Amino acid sequence: MLLAPTFKSATTCHTAALLATAISLVIRLLLNPVLGDNLPYITLLAAIAFSAWFCGAGASIWAVVVAVTGARYWFIHPTHTFSIPDAAQSLGIFAFLFISSIIIAFGEMNRRNSDRIRSTREELEAQVKQRTAQLDTANKDLRELTGHVLHLQDDERRRIARELHDSAGQSLAALAMNLSRVETEVKAQMERLTDTVATAADSAALVNEITRDIRTISYLLHPPMLDEAGLGPALRWYIEGFAERSKIAVDLDLSDEFGRLPQEFETAIFRVVQECLTNILRHSESRVATIRIRRSADDVRIEVRDKGKGISPEKLSEMASSRTPGVGIRGMQERVRQLGGTLEIDSDGIGKGTIVTVQLQIPVPTALAASVGT
Ligand SMILES: Nc1ncnc2c1ncn2[C@@H]1O[C@H](COP(=O)(O)OP(=O)(O)OP(=O)(O)O)[C@@H](O)[C@H]1O
Ligand SMILES: [Mg+2]
Predict the structure, then answer these.
(1) 0.70 exceeded by the pTM?
(2) What 3-state DSSP class applies to 287?
(3) Where are the chain's structural domains?
(4) Relative to the alpha carbon of 280, which ligand is closest?
(5) Per-residue pLDDT at 192
(6) Which ligand 1 atom lies nearest to the CA of residue 331?
(7) Phi then psi for 304, rounded to 5 degrees?
(8) Please, which residues have CB less than 5 A from ligand 2, an ion?
(9) Residue among 13, 15, 39, 9 at smallest CA distance from 27
């Protein structure tokens, strides 16, 4: 099978091969005064090599036919005739034909190899394209799924918080009232039963404690203040509790005029601050934390800093390639990404603290509403 040559159409191949042969015949003719009867095929071999490399075997065979015919007519004695030459000249023609066929065979082999390499490369490129497309789809699906899971998680937290508050919380409040009535009645009627009174008092205190705990858990799961009063009051309430529990001094820089944001933005910012403070408590060894939240017409910037042990550059690059064991930072990143924002973690090195910066674009209608409202 003759394989596809460099030139696109068969006509171009044949024309190029025959043109090269004609030029080589003319050059050889011009060299006649210098070379005489010697080396009759010298320029023709170059034309055959060119044809074999660029024009394919078919065109090269035609080039050989034309070259032999031309050489016979112009350069081989007796010239200007097509009679059969003497034995020595005939041997020369056979040698030319033999060398030409070797050149053509090499050209063909080279072309077959190139074709094989090209088709393998095309196959590989097609496979890479297909895999990339599959990977893109898988990534997109994963993002959608993560976004969905985060939404579900927020809804679920909101529901559990409400349930805890409304059911267990209410029942405990009723029980506390009952116990306090029992305590009063027992006190009044039976002065002697002081032990029983003490137990009742203990139980009442216990119930109050459980009520307080449930209230705290419920508020931590999803502070109702976030939906009702917005980010500012919810953050202030959370930070106050966090500072008390952790003994870390937290400074919140958030304007009273901050206003409201869409629910998913307020939830995301609250969760980011919550995770950053938890990380500061668990990992930084810092005694202080600063939270700065600034809002312009169409974006919000959140910075959470500590002055703790910081994060090494190796750990930071591990985090950048999503190789952290924890899910806190990845969760924050995903939340922020879902809202079209960016999250950066920087550390000036060991002992110099960490800063987490989040930038979020506020959707235009809300930005307009807020600016109209203020
Ligand atoms: N403020 C910080 N100071 C020092 N190191 C930090 C700080 N924040 C995060 N890190 C480092 O980054 C790592 C990843 O944090 P990430 O919140 O993703 O996971 P985690 O806190 O270990 O676990 P999880 O949040 O899932 O409970 C931490 O293990 C810690 O080494
Ligand atoms: Mg964490």
Answers:
(1) no
(2) coil
(3) 10-129, 230-373
(4) 1
(5) 64
(6) 18
(7) -120, 120
(8) 279, 326, 328
(9) 39
